[in-house]
Amino acid sequence: MNPKRPVHTFSIVARDPGTGEFGVAVQSHWFSVGSIVPWAAAGVGALATQSFANPDFGPAGLALLKAGRSPEQVLAELLAADPGRDERQVALVDRHGQVAAHTGERSIPWAGHQMGEGYSVQANIMVDDRTVPAMASAFEKTRGPLGERLLAALEAGQAAGGDLRGRQSAALRVVGPEATGAFWEDQRIDLRVDDHPQPIEELRRLHTLHTAYAWMNSAEALMVQGEMDEAVAHFSRAADLAPEQTEIALWKAICLALNQRLEEAMPLFERIFEHDPHWARFIERLPQVGMLEPALAEKILRERPDKTQ
Question: pTM for this one?
Answer without folding.
Answer: 0.91
